[in-house]
Structures are given as structure tokens and as C-alpha cells.
Amino acid sequence: MYIYRFKIYGRVQGVYYRKYTSNQLKKEGFRGFIQNMPDGTVEAVVECKDKESLNKVLSILKEGSPLSEVTNIVYNSVTDIKIDDDFTIRY
Predict the structure, then answer these.
(1) Which of 5, 11, 23, 36 does the annotation list as catalytic?
(2) Nearest 5°: CA angle at 56, between 52 and 61?
(3) What is the chain's alpha carbon radius of gyration, rounded to the nearest angstrom?
(4) Against a cut of 0.90, is the pTM above it?
(5) pLDDT of 7-33, one tens digit each?
(6) Number of folded domains in the chain?
(7) If we measure between CA atoms, which residue out of 35, 53, 51 comes closest to residue 90?
(8) Over the stretch 24-59, which tens digit does the pLDDT of each residue have?
(9) Could you tell me the CATH number of the domain that includes residue 13?
(10) Cα-based angle 22, 72, 90 (whole degrees, multiple of 5)
């Protein structure tokens, strides 16, 4: 298993982005969390089992909510973050 940290740019706060993508990632069985950041971006930390699941996460994050507009996603593999057994929204 691999854990990735994603930073999502664009119109992603105040448009139900966290709630919508959290629900989509939960449906697909992913574990991790998503949270708003002070700079207007959203951060997601997600556990992926392989390249195919990483691509699925990227697809969900790029799609976003109906009101959002994702302009860029930057991500990297991390080893120093503990994730929950579910997918949660952090406040």
C-alpha cells in the first residue's frame, strides 16, 4: 500500500468539493482524509494499493463537485502520515 498527499488547486472551497469527493472516494473503498487549507487549496491524503487505484483517485479529484473547478493537482508519496480506517473530512 502507498499513501499519497494531493494538493488540489482551483475553485475547491465553498462548493461542496470535500463532501462530494469524500463520498466518491468512500464508495470506491479508499481510506484517508480531505481538508481545506488556509491558502484556498484542498489537501487529500489517500491510501492506494497500486497505479490503477492512484489513477482512480486522480480521476475523482479532477472531476470534483458540480460547482467546483479543479485547475491543477500536485501529489507525492508520503510515509509519515497516519490515516483512519475510513475516509473522513477534517475540519
Answers:
(1) 36
(2) 145
(3) 12
(4) yes
(5) 999 999 999 999 999 999 999 999 999
(6) 1
(7) 35
(8) 999 999 999 999 999 999 999 999 999 999 999 999
(9) 3.30.70.100
(10) 30
Residue 16's domain spans which residues? 2-90
Please identify which of the residues 18, 31, 72, 90 carries the catalytic annotation: 18
The three cell numbers of residue 59 are 480521476
5 tagged catalytic: no
Taking the CB of residue 67, how many other CB atoms lie within 10 A of it? 12
Identify which of 41, 27, 18 has the alpha carbon closest to the alpha carbon of residue 91: 18
- 74 CB-near residues (< 8 Å, 6+ apart): 6, 7, 9
Respond yes or no: is residue 18 known to be catalytic: yes
How long is the chain? 91
How far is it, in rounded angstroms, from Cα 27 to Cα 36? 21
Q: Which amino acid is at 58?
A: L
